[in-house]
Amino acid sequence: MASDEPKAKKPKLSEEEKPEPPPKENAVKISTNSLFGMGNPLLDICAVVDKDFLDKYSLKPNDQILAEAKHKELFEELVKKFKVEYYAGGATQNSIKIAQWMIQEPHKVGTFFGCIGKDKFGEILKQKAEEVHVDAHYYEQDEEPTGTCAACITGDNRSLVANLAAANCYKKDKHLDLEENWKLVEKAKVYYIAGFFLTVSLESILKVAKHASENNKLFCMNLSAPFICQFFKDNLMQVMPYVDVLFGNETEAAAFAKEQDFDTKDIKEIVRKAQALPKDNKKRQRVVVITQGKDETVMAQSDKIETFPVVKTDPKYIVDTNGAGDAFVGGFLSELVQEKPLDQCVKAAHYAANVIIQRAGCSFPEKPDFK
């Protein structure tokens, strides 16, 4: 998001007149729509809350859950009782947004599909996507309102409660299968879908994942939350053979290992075993990337396990850790789509996450300062 400082007006150049930005060193020329994301577009409602609020709604300080009947009042109370901020959110959309910010030019490298309502929150999401130059194509319906996510922040923890509403109404036949939309899928060379979308449209994920696998393109997925590994295990494992890059954090990795009977709590062993799970496209060995908050990131690639220290940040500068995981993925994807080496992808991921935690919501300065 651009800063609010007034800027001198420059004469606008037409797209044809604009000079081509110099290519980044060793970068592959990126075309529009080369990064594709599909997921749950949500309007984040963020607030710093107290322990009593978490206890009242049986929330863990650091968790992601889907809203149930008992959380109905939570959204209203959050707005009434605390100072809230609204941000365009949803895990996949955040990551695509961050990747686009890291890339800068050309605009609309990132494409995003998801379902919204025909309402004010839906209009906000459309406007926010446009502001950050993401090519969002929403399936709009009027049966359900646009989804929201309460981000309840205590210290450097965040507890997320998602009310999917419209996001849960995405339909493969009503949107993904339409010729003009599928053409955008075919234009991409890197795909990213957060595990959260497994609760919405498995058939849409499988169609995209199989397309990537059959065309030797990169399909990336995120474990996203312990509940996905536990209660949507069957859906997750139907997609796993097509996953080229698997992301997760240490809590999700532990839940995944337990559900898969890996019989280990050691992160390095978990990434090794996740990497070795059956894979459809034999031309690419799976890469597994697990973050551990302020501790080192662990990555399995080829036959080696590597660790990468994160960028150290003084706790007094940490404003909001909500979005750190999404930013990590966004940074990683921004280099992956340019065919950079994987260690460079992790470096960009750490940079993006570090920027995001020092700002409220999943927001960012006008330009990145990543070398």
Description:
Keywords: ATP-binding, Kinase, Magnesium, Nucleotide-binding, Nucleus, Purine salvage, Transferase. The active site is at residue 326. Pfam families: PfkB (PF00294). Pathway: Purine metabolism; AMP biosynthesis via salvage pathway; AMP from adenosine: step 1/1. InterPro entries: Adenokinase, Carboh/pur_kinase_PfkB_CS, PfkB_dom, Ribokinase-like. A hairpin with a 2-residue loop joins strand 12 (287-292) and strand 13. A nine-stranded mixed β-sheet has the order 6-5-1-9-10-11-12-13-14, with helices on both faces. It is of the alpha/beta class. It has a domain at 35-41 and 89-146 and 164-357: UDP-N-acetylmuramoyl-L-alanine:D-glutamate ligase. It is globular. Helix 3 (91-103) packs across helix 12, helix 10 (250-259) packs across helix 11 and helix 12 runs antiparallel to helix 13 (342-356). Helix content is 35%, strand content 22%. The protein starts with 34 loop residues before the first strand and ends in a 15-residue tail after the last helix. Mean pLDDT is 91; it is low at 1-20.
